[in-house]
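Dear support,

I submitted the protein below through the web form. The confirmation email said the job was done, but the results page showed an empty box. After a refresh the structure appeared. I'm attaching both so you can tell me whether what I see now is the final result or a partial one.
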Amino acid sequence: MKKYIEDMFDEAIKAHKEFALDHAGIIEEIAKTIAECFENGNKLLIFGNGGSAADAQHIAAEFASRFVMERPPLAAVALTTDTSLLTAVGNDYSFDEVFEKQVSALANSGDVVWGISTSGNSENVIRGLKRAIKCEAKTIGFAGKDGGKMPGLCDKILIVDHQSTARIQEIHIMSAHIICGLIDEIMFGRFSG
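What the results page shows now:
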């Protein structure tokens, strides 16, 4: 078992290092896009399914509460948390519409809508991003493998070209944490003003 544990850590470390070498630029661009959104008084809407739903909630909490530094709360909402709304839309319409309906109700021009899908093909995420475009919001995507259907729908997209869902999700949350830290520094720290 010890060998298995060591192998998993080695695989994860290798995937993170290779990803960082090629994707630091897009992580920086995403951070600047979200920081500009917040600085202009707009909001961030985030969504995904399964582990990506948990990531959406995690990321929203880092912004609306705090990440590392003490600073004012930032307007971020995970569209994965209202069980009454999710089940109403799923029951009355379709699970494919759970994010689309919320984006339609909440997104405005200047907001950022962030969809997360390890396959890049989750229909409810795709529909949420399409609705965001109609609402004139900026779109960000976190995807895996080849990005699936998401690249054409996102102003900025981070694609983890890996076959392991676990590695994709780990790199997504690490990248999100880096983005949170960068935004804190852009707005309130060493990169501000």
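Response: this is the final, complete result; the empty box was a page-load delay. Strands lie at 44-48, 76-78, 112-117, 138-144, 156-160.
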